[in-house]
Amino acid sequence: MPVYTYRREDGSTFDLRQSFHDEPLTIDPETGQKVWRIVQGAGVIFKGSGFYVTDSKNASKQSVTSPTKKDDTASKSSESSTTAAAAD
After folding, report:
1. Contacts of 68 (CB under 8 A, 6+ apart)
2. What gap in Å lies between CA 4 and CA 14, rounded to an integer?
3. Cα torsion for 4, 20, 42, 6, to the nearest 10°?
4. Rg, Å, the chain Cα set
5. What is the DSSP letter of 2?
6. pTM assigned to the model
7. Residues 2, 41: Cα–Cα separation, whole Å
C-alpha cells in the first residue's frame, strides 16, 4: 500500500498509508482541519548500458560516424572555390 502525503489548512503535513482504492481524505482525523493530498514525483533510476533492453553499446557506436579526411578536404575545396568566385 502506498503512503500519501496530506497538507492541512495550517500548512503542516502528515503521511498516511492508504490503499489505491481508498478515497482521498478531506478532513484530518486527528485535528479536524481540511486537508489536500499532495502529488509527489516518483523517483526514477535508470540502470544498465542502454535505455531499452534491445540497445547495445556496439550498435550506438556504429551509427555515429566521424567525418573522413577526404570529406573534409572536399568541403574545404568547395569553400575556397566559392570564395574565389565571389571575389571575381
Report:
1. none
2. 8
3. -20
4. 31
5. -
6. 0.48
7. 13
| pLDDT tens, residue by residue, 24-43 | 999 999 999 999 999 888 88
Q: What are the Cα distances from residue 2, in Å, to 30, 40, 69?
A: 20, 12, 59
Q: What is the 3-state secondary structure (H, E, C) of 19-55?
A: CCCCCCCCECCCCCCEEEEECCCCCCCCCCCCCCCCC
At 7, give phi and psi (nearest 5°): -115, 130
In sequence order, the 6+-apart residues with CB closer than 8 A to the CB of 28 are 6, 8, 14, 34, 35
**pLDDT confidence of residue 47:** 74
Check: CB of residue 7 under 8 Å from CB of residue 33. no
